[in-house]
Amino acid sequence: MRKLFFLCVYSLFLFAGSLCVAEAAKPPLLAELFMASGVNPDGSPGERVTAYPPEAPLLAVFAECRNVSAGMKVRFVWYFAPPGKEKTRFAEYTAKNPARRKAAIFHSTVSLEKEWPEGDYYVEARLDGEKKMKTVRFSVKKGEAISSVSADGVKMLPAAKRKQDTREQVYFSGKETALEKEERVRSEKKLAEKEAVFRKNPADISAVLDLADAYAAMNDAASASLALALYKGLAESSPSDMILVRLADAYARLSLFDRAFTTALRRSWNPLTSPEGAIAQILLLAGAGGDWE
């Protein structure tokens, strides 16, 4: 009993000290979301716009982010609202940050072989670690001026307005690279294998856990929800630390930070495991949720 008491005191001391350090860290921030005439060869935005002509070769949205780290992603969702009708989603892209930088600008583009329908358009974007999505609204209408277009078809900023930006910025595309496509195909193949094993052994805990992990590795909300459902079932029957850490992460991926935090706290109550892992996860969740209180 005395050993457990000192362990609790030690964990609280470690948690308080870590919080002091974490207070100095700034959470990820999607500072600004805006539309541009196109994408320059270096990935930087062209001239800022609020409307496009129907014959525009592409539509481009940019998300200026701060305090990003390796692996962070920005999810872009495109919507079209015809006159007098509700908006409907027509495209979705995810841009990933491969390296740590103080600031980075992510972008996503869409193109159409025919003219764009006139009406209002919206793009919603969310950076990993933020609860709310930012939205930018723009329109497509006849009579809008077309910016100059380079030889390769990329819309460029007029020469008189091209100024060198001396700030440290890194630009990341929302288009899937060949490497990312190959990785996605491997993940889908692995998922299919795990689903086949699960169908044969639905009562096998290891099969359920492997399938949940495979769903969690996929980069879409539907798979994340399936992973969460499986982790919740496992936690009800076997609330081990291994299961709870995955369940907390699954809640966080769906921006359910309150439930993620509560689940991480459950880990710290287990006298058979070290509290350091739970404390580290709690700090990460506090930073991701932007809540240090």
Mean pLDDT: 76
- Low-pLDDT segments: 1-24, 146-169
The count of domains is: 2
Nearest-angstrom radius of gyration? 23 Å
Q: What is the count of DSSP helices, taking H or I runs of 4+ residues?
A: 7
Structural class: alpha+beta
Distance between the termini: 31 Å
Order of helices and strands: HEEEEEEEEEEHHHHHH
CATH C-level name of the largest domain = Mainly Beta
Assembly status? single chain
Identify the CATH architecture of the largest domain. Sandwich
Number of strands: 10
CATH topology of the largest domain: Immunoglobulin-like
Q: Which descriptor suits the 3D outline?
A: elongated
Strand order of the biggest β-sheet: 2-1-4-7-10
Q: In percent, how helical is the residue content?
A: 25-40%
Write up this protein:
40% of the residues lie in helices and 22% in strands. It folds into two domains: 2-25 and 178-289, Alpha Horseshoe (Serine Threonine Protein Phosphatase 5, Tetratricopeptide repeat); 29-173, Immunoglobulin-like (Sandwich). The strands form two sheets. The protein has a five-stranded mixed β-sheet, with no helix packed on it. A five-stranded mixed β-sheet has the order 3-9-8-5-6, with no helix packed on it. Mean pLDDT is 76; it is low at 1-24 and 146-169. The radius of gyration is 23 Å and the shape is elongated. It has seven helices and ten strands. The chain is α+β, with helices and mostly antiparallel strands and 293 residues long. Helix 1 runs parallel beside helix 7 and helix 5 packs antiparallel against helix 6.
